[in-house]
Amino acid sequence: MKNVIIIGGMAAGCKTAARLSRLCPDYQITLIEKSPFISFSSCGLPLYASGEINDLSELNKTPYGAVRDKKYFSQVKGVKVLTETEVNEINADKKELTCRSIQNGDVFKLNYDCLVIATGSETIKPGFPFPASPLVSSFHSPADVKYFRQSAQKGEIEKAVIIGGGFIGCEMLEALSSLWGIETVLIESKASLLSSVLDSEISGYVENEIPAGKIQLMLSTTVKKIEINSIGAPVVYLDNGKEIITDFVFYCLGVKPDAGLAKASGAACGMYGGILVDEQMRTSLPDVWAAGDCVEIKNLVTGRYDYFSFGSLSNRMGRVAADSIAGLSYGGNNISFNGSAGSISLKLFDNIICAAGLTEARAGRLGYETGSVIGCWYDRPDYYPEAKNIFGKLVYEKRTLKLLGLQLSGEGEVTRYADVFSELLSQNKNVEDLMNLEHGYTPAHSSPLSPLNYLGYMAVNQETDGVKNCSPAMLSSFNGSLIDVREPVEVEAATVDLPALSSGVRIIQVPLSQLRLRLNELDLNKPAMCVCERGTRAYEAARLLMNKGFKNVSYLGGGLLLCNKINKFSGFMEKSYER
Amino acid sequence: MKNVIIIGGMAAGCKTAARLSRLCPDYQITLIEKSPFISFSSCGLPLYASGEINDLSELNKTPYGAVRDKKYFSQVKGVKVLTETEVNEINADKKELTCRSIQNGDVFKLNYDCLVIATGSETIKPGFPFPASPLVSSFHSPADVKYFRQSAQKGEIEKAVIIGGGFIGCEMLEALSSLWGIETVLIESKASLLSSVLDSEISGYVENEIPAGKIQLMLSTTVKKIEINSIGAPVVYLDNGKEIITDFVFYCLGVKPDAGLAKASGAACGMYGGILVDEQMRTSLPDVWAAGDCVEIKNLVTGRYDYFSFGSLSNRMGRVAADSIAGLSYGGNNISFNGSAGSISLKLFDNIICAAGLTEARAGRLGYETGSVIGCWYDRPDYYPEAKNIFGKLVYEKRTLKLLGLQLSGEGEVTRYADVFSELLSQNKNVEDLMNLEHGYTPAHSSPLSPLNYLGYMAVNQETDGVKNCSPAMLSSFNGSLIDVREPVEVEAATVDLPALSSGVRIIQVPLSQLRLRLNELDLNKPAMCVCERGTRAYEAARLLMNKGFKNVSYLGGGLLLCNKINKFSGFMEKSYER
Questions:
Q1: Domain that holds residue B434
Q2: Helix, strand, or coil here: A237?
Q3: Buried b or exposed e, range B481-503, using 16+ CB within 10 angstroms
Q4: Which of A284, A490, B159, B458 is most buried by a 10 A CB count?
Q5: Looking at chain B, which residue has its C-alpha nearest residue A61?
Q6: b/e burial code for range B362-390 (CB count within 10 A of at least 16 → b)
């Protein structure tokens, strides 16, 4: 018999409680939560905001309709729950908590044998001045969203501003504009959306795919302050001098670990402010575990502590914490939570976005010398009537060819490739391993070779044989001959155009089918970049030129198609654009 | 300079030729193909048959519209092509081929330095007598499909019979019934569809999901003979005495390696009749490689030679054959084709089916002592408005917990899980590794825990803690107490029903929320099986009963929902059924 207390009643805390109660039915388990709710699926909040879910209570019901409340946890799980109760202090020496009832202010002490801290995350507050008003809100708790939803439903919001272009900012952009028809401005201080998971080539595509009309994207744009004007409307003042009068502001600047209590009690915390845990979710304090959004875990790519705030990981961490407290082992091994490769997926309008590992930008900041390749494929064989485009980027370490990161986006299914990639990252695999990857192939679901096979081939071709894949981001600084190997009929049809190039570039049209015969038209000593619509022929052409003695040859990764998708609103090379 | 000849101009042969020409531009490469076409995507034939693709030529065009013919291969790839040319003999000592032009009958000899055999597969002919008639056709070559397509288009086919319920049989079932509105009978000698990749629980679900109406499934049914009757219509005579008069018959009995030429020349072949190759695609003959559907490769689960006929593998094998001939290596290692975990995916009406590895039935035949677990999940969080059901089965080796196979089906996306699983199979992972799997989670695409996480948990719970997962296939022989832990309101609504049970079974209704209080109503010494709608509560109930001292407890995997889906047409326990 042990007395286990769990602080925090969301994903990680509830999973720990339920699992532990199943494993150790004689343990006394108490769950303490400061809000009135427990086991609330906050990942579903955007669906409530958008109106796709009608009632907040949907987010804490079981599939068979039972509300996951105090009574449910007591009857079904055998767990005692205290809601609207704060823990103000952890005394790790005495194994004692100081608690306070939020409803009546009563302060009381509780003792534990084992403690689990699952206090989750808190929203990052803006650094600029902003008023305390329900019209200027974070997007974190049910309370945050409720006011917006009611106002939207009453038609009180015609124009809204979202500050922050991360996951939640992008999800809300779609919810506000598509589902409520609200004219929406998204302001992001960085030069691109989703910059924590996408490099500029793929985010450039994603930004371009956001439908014009009711949406204005302001990248590389910072806010000076927000005020409420004389008629009660929020006004967003930008550092560039502009002002936006609006009906509602959501700031979605991300979250950080809510680890203040743990830190005050002496638990070791990391550089992101999260509680440091080992693979059994143990903190530095004796008999104290932690799980979920309040901890830092190992990044499986870098091997260093990192911060991820994903509901999927919280669930898995909670289970491992319970297994660890119960002393479970399989075949003599402790049950472990190894960390995360940072695998994400997101739906944004008609596109699916997924990624795993590091962006090239972040890898560079962490000191890796990186290589990368960029490509474009159909999600199914090109003859398939509904085949869609997919664009992707692979990042690897140049010296070792170790995989570092993957980014994919397109209207077709891409998540399957990121899932496999994430497993490869956790196994420290390299680019060559992509060539041997198998996938379930049928024309309805995929091409015979997957984007991962192709990215592996491209990277190996680049590193072993020197067939250089050029990023569209590098195109504007290219100087040499641009060899357009498309057929004349394609060039005339102009479904994709040549991008703007520096003045020194000589454009030469030689279809791939004539290249073998017209090599004499080309200058062997000048840098040459081959381009075509999708990149495949350009690669073949580059190989051919290298075989014929050309020294400095590359091909445009992702083809003119990706280039055009990024340049469509002429924003790619600029630091900021509006649309 | 080497003189390389490739026999066979489909996926593997063309890939070898194109890649080798890029790697070794000074090699003389000749491709010999007996049909008039090369580089034809036969995986797209069902789309031509169904009418989704209008012109057969779509299947050998590049994405930019160029026809992949002789001229294309010569101009673009630098490869010489001989079509309508047969190779009648390989003299491996003299390195000499005897060839024959099909058009004019000329016989001539060709010498090679390196030879690649990529002769593909041939269709398996029925063992019963059948007439030589265009109305009784295999489904393998463009010619096979052309006659059907023309007749269907003219409205000449009202009723068709498909013999064989494998991949092609199932694809054609949908094409004929859904797209042409043809009344279709599918005859399969085995007790279930797709039995090479699905066990009876999952195929039972798949069969049930085939829409009623224009389709009749005849399982465990064998054909005696086919004849053409006096008015010119095919008649299918069954061994059970029935006759089916029809307008058209497709026999889809699978394919086997077309390796006769290789065998006659002394190349070692395996038990499936395919050419045996090593990881560089080398045959037993000096300087002779082989790739594609004509070879046997290593099954990554069993470690033994096996036969797979997948276009995806052919492409990858062709590339490795070229790399091997070119003498390429990366970091001192030969480029290798390791084998296959047998990963497949298929669309059948509204369902997606995917699998990897071995079925439990095949694993048993191969001598493995297997364990398995079956489950049912939503593809997305249950609160998600469009959440769909997924059903799945995991097969593993009982002694080592090594993963052996996965089968998933449902209306939601499942291919991503089979892809990852296939990679785990190739790494010899076990059920515990499923618990640590990461996936890109967002409510639009998945639940916080993936089916693979759940299957891993279920298997570990079963093997380590003895919480038994019972297959619906075992339900009819169960004897003991069936404890229905659903809430009374669910039982009354009867969205799912209790299945037929043996007469000795006592059914006890105790909702999970009351189970802790009503344990005294249950008999501790009788075998108990817990059931609920989807299996989750039944698992919790089983744990609870075990914790309270019950010795022989199990829960129904996949819940009553899967059970009902299989039993809906009362066909599950029977060997054969019609609908």
A1: 344-465
A2: strand
A3: bbbbbbbeebbeeeebebbebee
A4: B458
A5: B383
A6: bbeeeebebbbbbbbbbbbbbbbeebbbb
**Token digits for A533?**
């619509």
| Count of the separate structural domains present in chain A | 4
Residue at a domain's end among B334, B362, B392:
B334
- Domain assignment present for residue B487? The answer is yes
- The CATH number given to whatever domain includes residue A361 is 3.50.50.60
CB interface of A with B, residues 58-87, below 8 Å? 58-59, 61-66, 72, 75-76, 78
Beta bridge partners of A110: A97
Nearest C-alpha neighbor of A53 from the set A146, A135, A134? A146
User: What is the side-by-side strand order in the sheet with B96-101?
Assistant: B85-91, B96-101, B107-111
Chain A partners within 8 Å of B378 (Cβ): 63
The token duo for A232 is 């009660």
| Structure token digits, residue A334 | 């402790």
Last residue of a domain, one of B411, B434, B465: B465
Show pLDDT as tens, one digit a residue, over chain A (579 residues): 899 999 999 999 999 999 999 999 999 999 999 999 899 888 999 999 999 999 888 898 888 888 899 999 998 899 999 999 999 999 999 999 999 999 999 999 999 999 999 999 999 999 999 999 999 999 999 989 999 999 999 999 999 999 999 999 999 999 999 889 999 999 999 999 999 999 999 999 999 999 988 899 999 999 999 999 999 999 999 999 999 999 999 999 999 999 999 999 999 999 999 999 999 999 999 999 999 999 999 999 999 999 999 999 999 999 999 999 999 988 778 899 999 999 999 999 999 999 999 999 999 999 999 999 999 999 999 999 889 999 999 999 999 999 999 999 999 889 999 999 999 999 999 999 999 999 999 999 999 999 999 999 999 999 998 999 999 998 888 989 999 999 999 998 888 888 878 888 899 999 999 998 999 988 888 899 999 999 999 999 999 999 999 989 999 999 999 998 886 444 333 333 343
Would the CB atoms of B383 and A41 count as touching at under 8 Å? Answer: yes
Q: How many CB pairs lie under 8 A apart between chains A and B?
A: 271
What are the DSSP calls for A121-167, one per residue?
EEEPPPSS-----TTEEESSSHHHHHHHHHHHHTT--SEEEEE--SH
What is the per-residue pLDDT across A496-542, written as a single tens digit (0 to 9) for each?
Answer: 888 878 888 899 999 999 998 999 988 888 899 999 999 999 999 99
Largest Cα span, chain A? 89
- Assess contact for A116 and A321: CB atoms under 8 A: yes
Quick check: is B419 in a domain? yes
Distance CA B408, CA A578 (A): 45
> Inter-axis angle of helices B415-426 and A415-426, to 10 degrees?
30
* List of long-range contacts for A237-246, beta carbons under 8 Å, 24+ apart: A238/A187, A244/A161, A244/A185, A245/A159, A246/A159, A246/A160, A246/A161, A246/A185
- Chain B contacts in chain A segment 426-465 (CB below 8 A): 426-427, 432, 435-446, 448-450, 453, 457, 460, 464
* C-alpha–C-alpha distance, residues B573 and B568, integer Å: 11
Dihedral sign computed on CA atoms, order B302, B305, B306, B309 = positive
Residue A94, CB-side half-sphere exposure with 13 Å CA sphere: 10
Closest by CA position to A393, among listed A557, A280, A546: A557
Whether B438 sits inside 8 A of A347 (CB atoms) is: no
* Shared-domain flag, residues B478 and B544: yes
| Same domain assignment for residues B461 and B350 | yes
Contact between A435 and B378 using a beta-carbon 8 Å cutoff:
no
- Comparing C-alpha atoms, which of A7, A564, A574, A528 is closest to residue A265? A7
Residue A566 located in a structural domain: no
Q: What are A83-95's pLDDT values in tens digits?
A: 999 999 999 999 9
ipTM comes to: 0.95
Residues B397 and B503 both lie in one domain: no
